[in-house]
Amino acid sequence: MSIPTELHDLSVAQLAAKLKSREVSSVEAAQHFLARAKTHQDLGAYIHINEDVTLAQARAADAAIAAGTAGKLAGVPMGHKDLFVTQDFPTTAGSKMLAGYQSPFDATMVTKLAAAGAVTLGKLNMDEFAMGSANENSAISPVRNPWDTSRVPGGSSGGSAAAVAARLAPAATGSDTGGSIRQPASFCGITGIKPTYGRASRYGMIAFASSLDQAGPMARTAEDCALLLSEMCGPDLDRDSTSLDHPAEDFTLHLNDSLAGLRIGVPAEFFGDGLSSDVRAAVDGALKEYEKLGAKLVPISLPRTELSIPVYYIIAPAEASSNLSRFDGVKFGHRAKDYSDLVDMYKKTRAEGFGDEVKRRIMTGAYVLSHGYYDAYYLQAQKIRRMIADDFQTAFQDCDLIAGPAAPTVAWALGGKSDPLANYLADIYTLPASLAGLPGLSVPAGFGEGGMPVGLQLIGNYFGEAKLLNAAHQLQQATDHHLRQPTGIAK
Q1: pLDDT tens-digit readout, 82-117
Q2: Distance between CA atoms of 244 and 236, rounded to whole angstroms?
Q3: What is the dihedral of CA 53, 58, 61, 65, to 10 degrees?
Q4: Starting at the edge strand that comes first in sequence, how are the strands of the sheet with 296-300 ordered?
Q5: CB-based contacts of 395, cutoff 8 Å, min separation 6
Q6: Which of 77, 108, 80, 70 is nearest to 233 (CA)?
Q7: What pLDDT does 5 receive?
Q8: Is the CB of residue 355 less than 8 Å from the CB of residue 396?
Q9: Strands (DSSP E) found in 6-150
Q10: Residue positions annotated with a catalytic role
């Protein structure tokens, strides 16, 4: 059976249909994408590949398809962000601290997708412990943007975004703490969704900031994200204390609903001086498309948008300083070779194992939690976080969805933002929804400076994923931005 040359251009939905009809075998699909991953190693997207494991999973998927017992994603190859632990692949979280670590169990996300028949191609690069906005903080290597390899792919799920954009995988898992699915999806011209906090299990996802971290899918289309998210969500109460007791849902059911009468809130704070003109033009174009589809644009205000940056960069480092204390060289991961006593081992292990950004956030977090500063910083940040969430609820009284840019600019050059604060400011539009625990997605909206992709961010109310995906799907039916692919990537 010959493999169609356009196999890697198929969406998840299209590929799943071909696999189900046995027009293409799972083994052939896996081999095809593994070959592409090898060809484009220069992007730095994949950091762990095990062909034997991948092909064994593909053969099992073929057998399930032949027996008529296959799940909806049977044989569909995909990559996993290296934040999700896996039995058959190392899990390093992009850090020297976990070099060579092999988990004795799979993360719930990995288990759920495997149960649906998905085949794991490998583990994808990321900012160390998910801390970053550019994927330059990886201890393994930086990831390059397939649209322009001199630029960043966004972070921390940059490896996932780059792999999907370069057609090295039809889909990938990502995680979003302050925008780490939505921002790289915007920079790489793909679709990515962060569900309501607690809808997707965090079990087996290496924690950065426990009250913010959320898993989600990244793919080229909203339809694909709907297929993947349907399999990823659902209660995991026995293993994840932050999991919500909310039933799983088929997010594909309402993709084709009419948008007539849909009220889309447009926050003034998302269109201020910090927004570049090229991004604004693309976002404005997408909003006009929604008006053509029957939606109504409603001016709204999210008055505490600017406060989301200091609030996030107090709360997230505080939680990180606690979560990362477990990496001490005692039970697993990196351990310093030369030390005089236990305390010296702790110090040297952590100094050697953690990168600069991780150390910066651990120290910031320890400071804001320390005696005398907890009330002044951490407690005040939590109060403002509640106010930010309340601002959204006030806005949703006048609208059904909120729309705006996913990032203030297109992807910048590698090394272009060496100042950490400049990177932090780039998260201004994604942080508010994360702090409120709301679902949000980025969908391709056009192109800006240098022909680089621009993402439109859509934010929904709690458990509003189906409405978000419906709106994104309808935009993709009316436009072709998501069909464009990086010109520098060979077919």
Answers
A1: 999 999 999 999 999 999 899 999 999 999 999 999
A2: 8
A3: -170
A4: 46-48, 119-124, 77-81, 171-176, 214-219, 191-194, 440-447, 453-460, 401-405, 263-267, 296-300
A5: 265, 267, 300, 301, 302, 402
A6: 108
A7: 53
A8: no
A9: 46-48, 77-81, 119-124
A10: 81, 156, 180
Interatomic CA distance for residues 254 and 472, integer angstroms: 11
- The residue with tokens 């990168």 is 355
CATH, domain range 1-491: 3.90.1300.10
Q: CA-to-CA distance for 131 and 81, rounded, in angstroms? A: 13
pTM of the model: 0.96
Q: What are phi and psi of 59, to 5 degrees?
A: -65, -40
Structure tokens at 231: 């399999």
What is d(CA 343, CA 326) in angstroms, rounded to the nearest whole number?
14
Tokens 């290296």 belong to 82
Judged by DSSP in three states, 252 sits in coil
Q: How far apart are CA 197 and CA 68, in angstroms?
A: 35
Tokens of 220: 């080229």
pLDDT digits (tens, 9 = 90+) for 371-396: 889 999 999 999 999 999 999 999 99
- Which distant-in-sequence residues (6+ apart) come within 8 Å of 424 by Cβ? 133, 309, 313
At 29, list the tokens.
């699909």
